[in-house]
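REQUEST
  id: r-88c1
  op: predict_structure
  target: Extracellular solute-binding protein
  payload:
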Amino acid sequence: MKVLLNYLGLNPNSSESVDYERAAKLLTKIRPYIRYFRTSQYSDLASGDVCVAFGWSSEVLIGIERAQKANKGLEINYVVPKEGAVLWYDMMAIPADAKHVDNAYKYMNYILEPAVMADISNYNLYSNAVLPALDLADESVASNPNITIPDDKMKLMFVVEPQDEKLNEVINSLWEKIKSSKK
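RESPONSE
  id: r-88c1
  status: 200
  body:
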């Protein structure tokens, strides 16, 4: 829904239920052309069973790699909408009641080492915030604008902000109606 709000030129973090109803109305119009809503069905993209998928960059890029390895002659491209898209971050935290705080810091420091972060990015095809890791990542990762987002596209990205429970209920209700509607 957030991406639809952004597409419509609305605040993607709107707290107004009417904005989400407007986004749902747009999604309802294209619902007949949507085969399914799933968060991990990128194999259908790689096999050619679907022609468009909307998803997280890493999963789509892995689907592209699988399609290339299958050698079926499929050309699959990953595109960030010209209006922008969701930007998100993985975080690490130490619980307040952690029993082994020193070990937690050691682990976090290890993960944040540039060589380790480069290996992680090479594996999962996600960028990372450790800038020296970029120099150590595979060239195919470091130079891929769908992984390492250029500044001009970064300006179009937005982070999803927390919203209150009442608005979550409205959004979830709209989603359920759309997902359960017949094609």
